[in-house]
Write a structure and sequence with these properties.
The complex is a heterodimer. Helices cover 74% and strands 0% of the residues of chain A. Chain A has helices at 6-10, 18-47, 51-55, 62-72, 78-90, 104-139, 144-158, 161-175, 191-217, 220-227, 232-260, 264-269, 275-284, 288-316, 318-322. Helix content of chain B is 33%, strand content 23%. Chain B contains 17 helices and 19 strands. In chain B, the strands form 4 sheets. In chain B, strands 1, 8, 9, 10, 11, 12, 13, 14, 15, 16 and 17 form an 11-stranded mixed sheet that branches. In chain B, strands 4-5-7-6 form a 4-stranded antiparallel sheet, covered by helices on one side. Chains A and B meet through helix 3, helix 4, helix 6, helix 8 and helix 11 of A and helix 1, helix 4, helix 7, helix 8 and helix 14 of B.
Chain lengths: 329, 506
């Protein structure tokens, strides 16, 4: 997990105007991180295989391959390629796909709505199920509710997506014929892939929620609230929810960032035309410009979501934003 | 939280999740009416410009939008007229093709020899960067003269007609007007179908071209869907989502066979599963006796019956009976582990270590079966699995330092021995880790000999040399395996084409 909650504490002595400076600092770090990531990916990709060999017909000669390399600009020196990549990237040009001969950014833009829809749907499902299960298992610790729900959560997390996905397809598409097996044919098509993804994320969220609520339950204010006769519902909604929110938000944000980067396995199983499928196709074809663009995009998403999460802490818990003492962060 | 609230939360989550689906993306295809076919392929076409890419899933789609200069008879595989109605050679290197009159592109403009010549020149143009260049590189230039297409080759080429069956003719004026990039997105052809819509990475919808010159097609709409996972393609067939699924594995075929409403359509193709040896820097495999021992250690019947589930045929060389130059007089492969052991002893190679290079693109079960067969006669095989790009870089490197044996599957889409044994075994070719000047001379001569009888004789000599030196072994002839439901009437062909004008759906 990344260091998300810490900076606010470090700036304990500063007051609110520190926030813009904090955001600027984080953005500076973000640019540096993006530069580092793309540089590593640029060189690592070129060490591992030659796209020209994958593009030519089987009977091609060495000269045919060289011809394709030249046409793709791969026969220039590595430094030359790197500098021209950086130069173009700064101008917003991430190059053309070797395979599809279209701008890498256009390919990502086409796939993004699919991945975004899937990610948001999966996140909603996993937050709702995860939080509800987490709260119940914490409140009913040691009771039958916990003994029933925890194994389900663990199974959800332990089953790999390719297995969960295929099981769901076998039951709901092949046997019952209720839901489409693959592709996008309307909102119902979203259900199976979203549940597949949510089964992984919900488990993580449920466990973190459970831990956070258990921690809160041991606090004095809970005992006081109970002593004053607060009902369980009131206790959960008024007190525990806000105070347990920060760790849950952290996990949910990380899950969202992961999901937006493309859920590779789930997208392949459900023939979902999102970023995940594009990633796997581009990596196996060594479609360098597309892989570089995806990595850049996924890193940017990660950084932006982390930054937004940091800022959200302040909304949830004013002590974080004002740099006040203590707090759940 | 009480039960009612819990239930409400679940409902809300589902509703929100489904609601999220409505923003930004459109359902690509509606339900299936009569005359509509839904087809699952493994990949989304890499382009719709027929000058660029040539892979099977890309071909499957765009070859319905465009007409080819020539086609093959799906039953006999003979080259037959299509856009060119007849052809003649005026000298060993010059071919004249008479174009079919009255053919128009779907925008109404006439298709002429000029368009055909442009379609070839475009692939030959270095700046265009066609990945099909290698298939047409024997052509010097293509021009239009007196209504004919005239093709000049650099040397006499007996395989020219084969490769011209893969040439789709594009409209010169339209391509030049809109540019290559726009053409790949909005292609216009003269073929039996026109592009209706394409959803990137997901599906391509074609509808029948009312202006097509051929007999009206029974199929009115075809939806090609990209479903990369084979188990998902099977599920699509089982749930009646699609009518046809391509590129099925033998296991998947077994599953489909158990469903009485589905059928397996399969046919032997020109694809050869083979084992190639490193005869230059392969260690133990530099010795022809070791290569012979390996050939005799392999249980070919088990590969075909158990692993391929019968979707393969035994062969006697690197070529299938479909290829020109195939020599049926050669003896079939045979399994003789005792003789293999004897040969290894003779070569002092008992217990030798062999590196087998492979990639996930090649059936891992076959690779492991070969490893087992070789262990049984006393050879230790270390499988080195790397992804396809890395694998190609390794085995195609001129240093020949890639190991001792490798498994592969080969198809030149040309139904000719030249397209198999020349690139695989001619000295200096990227796939070849073998060198024999006699063999080189024979295959060089054969690829420039027009007379079929003489060519056949040359290939017999070439195969005889290969059977003696064993730089590789043909393991079996692979089948194309499709799954279909009972709506579809179609017979697949050896070239793995997916021509919609040859299909019918009820």
């Amino acid at each position: 997990m990344t260091a998300i909650a810490v900076p606010a504490r470090r700036r304990r002595t500063r007051s609110l105007p520190a926030t813009p400076r904090y955001v600027a600092g984080r953005l500076g770090q973000a640019v540096l991180a993006l530069f580092g990531v793309t540089t590593i990916v640029f060189f690592a990709l070129r060490l591992s295989g030659d796209p020209a060999r994958l593009l030519v017909p089987e009977g091609a000669t060495a000269a045919d391959i060289e011809r394709v390399r030249e046409q793709l600009g791969l026969s220039d020196s590595l430094w030359h390629q790197y500098l021209s990549f950086l130069g173009n990237a700064v101008r917003g040009d991430l190059g053309y796909s070797y395979v599809q001969n279209r701008p890498a950014t256009a390919l990502i833009a086409e796939r993004l709505p699919y991945t975004a829809n899937l990610a948001v749907a999966a996140l909603i499902l996993s937050v709702v199920f995860g939080v509800v299960i987490g709260v119940i298992t914490a409140l009913k610790r040691g009771r039958w509710q916990e003994r029933v729900l925890m194994p389900i959560v663990l199974v959800g997390q332990a089953m790999p997506a390719f297995w969960t996905g295929l099981l769901l397809v076998l039951v709901f598409s092949v046997a019952l014929r209720w839901l489409p097996s693959t592709g996008y044919d309307g909102p119902l098509s979203l259900l199976l892939p979203a549940v597949t993804l949510a089964s992984l994320s919900a488990a993580a969220i449920a466990r973190v929620t459970r831990g956070a609520v258990l921690e809160q339950l041991s606090q004095d204010y809970v005992r006081t609230a109970r002593a004053k006769g607060a009902s369980t519902t009131r206790l959960v909604l008024r007190h525990l929810a806000r105070n347990s929110a920060i760790p849950v938000l952290t996990v949910a944000a990380l899950e969202l960032a992961n999901l937006l980067g493309g859920a590779v396995v789930t997208e392949v199983i459900f023939a979902w035309p999102g970023i995940g499928q594009l990633t796997i196709q581009s990596v196996s074809a060594r479609d360098f410009p597309v892989v570089q663009a995806i990595v850049l995009f996924a890193s940017a998403v990660y950084i932006v979501i982390n930054l937004l999460t940091d800022l959200l802490y302040g909304v949830i818990d004013r002590r974080v934003a004002t740099g006040g003492n203590g707090g759940a962060a | 939280m009480n039960r009612r609230r819990f239930r409400a939360a679940l409902l809300l989550a589902t509703a929100l999740a489904l609601g999220a689906a409505s923003c930004g993306i459109q359902p690509a295809s509606a339900g299936r009416g009569p005359g509509t076919i839904m087809i699952d392929t493994a990949n989304y076409p890499s382009t719709l410009d027929p000058g660029k890419q040539y892979d099977t899933d890309t071909y499957s789609v765009y070859r319905n939008i465009f007409d080819q200069l020539l086609r093959r008879n799906p039953k006999t595989n003979a080259v037959v007229p299509w856009l060119a109605t007849k052809w003649r050679q005026t000298d060993p290197r010059t071919w004249h093709f008479t174009m079919r009159p009255g053919v128009t592109f779907s925008d109404g403009s006439p298709l002429t020899a000029e368009d055909a010549a442009y379609s070839i020149s475009r692939i030959l143009d270095k700046k265009f960067g066609s990945q099909q260049y290698a298939n047409f590189s024997v052509i010097d230039k293509a021009t239009a003269a007196g209504g004919d297409l005239v093709v000049h080759t650099s040397v006499p080429s007996p395989t020219l007609l084969s490769y011209l069956t893969t040439l789709s003719v594009v409209p010169k004026a339209y391509v030049q007007r809109v540019g290559d990039k726009q053409f790949a997105v909005k292609p216009i052809g003269s073929g039996p179908f026109v592009l209706q819509s394409a959803t990137a990475g997901s599906e391509v919808v074609l509808t029948a071209n009312p202006k097509w010159w051929g007999p009206p097609t029974q199929i009115r709409t075809a939806v090609f869907r990209a479903v990369p996972n084979v188990a998902s393609r099977v599920a699509d067939l089982q749930s009646r989502k699609v009518d046809l699924a391509t590129t099925l594995t033998p296991d998947a075929a077994d599953q489909i066979r158990r469903d009485p409403t589905l059928a397996i359509l399969s046919t032997p193709t020109e694809r050869v599963a083979y084992l190639a040896y490193n005869t230059i820097k392969g260690g133990a495999t530099n010795d022809p006796r070791v290569r012979k021992a390996i050939a005799e250690a392999i249980d070919y019947d088990a590969l075909i019956k158990n692993l391929q589930r019968g979707y393969a045929k035994p062969i006697n060389s690197m070529a299938t009976p479909l290829a020109f130059g195939y020599d049926k007089s050669l003896p079939d492969n045979h399994h003789d582990p005792e003789n293999a052991k004897r040969l290894l002893q003779e070569a002092h190679a008992v217990g030798a270590k062999l590196v087998m290079a492979t990639s996930p693109s090649f059936d891992p079960q076959v690779v492991q079966a070969i490893q087992g067969d070789l262990a049984a006669v006393g050879l230790q095989v270390e499988i080195q699995n790397s992804d396809q790009a890395t694998y190609l870089k390794k085995v195609q490197d001129p240093s020949h330092e890639w190991g001792s044996i490798r498994f592969g599957k080969w198809s030149c889409s040309c139904l000719d021995s030249d397209g198999v044994i020349y690139p695989l075994f001619h000295t200096g070719e990227i796939w070849s880790s073998y060198s024999n000047p006699d063999f080189d001379k024979i295959v060089e001569q054969a690829r420039e000999t027009i007379d079929p009888a003489q060519r056949t004789k040359l290939y017999s000599q070439a195969f005889e040399l290969l059977n003696r030196d064993l730089p590789g072994i043909g393991l079996f002839q692979a089948y194309a395996v499709y799954g279909a439901n009972s709506r579809l009437q179609w017979t697949p062909d050896a070239s793995e084409s997916l021509f919609l004008d040859q299909m019918k759906v009820s």
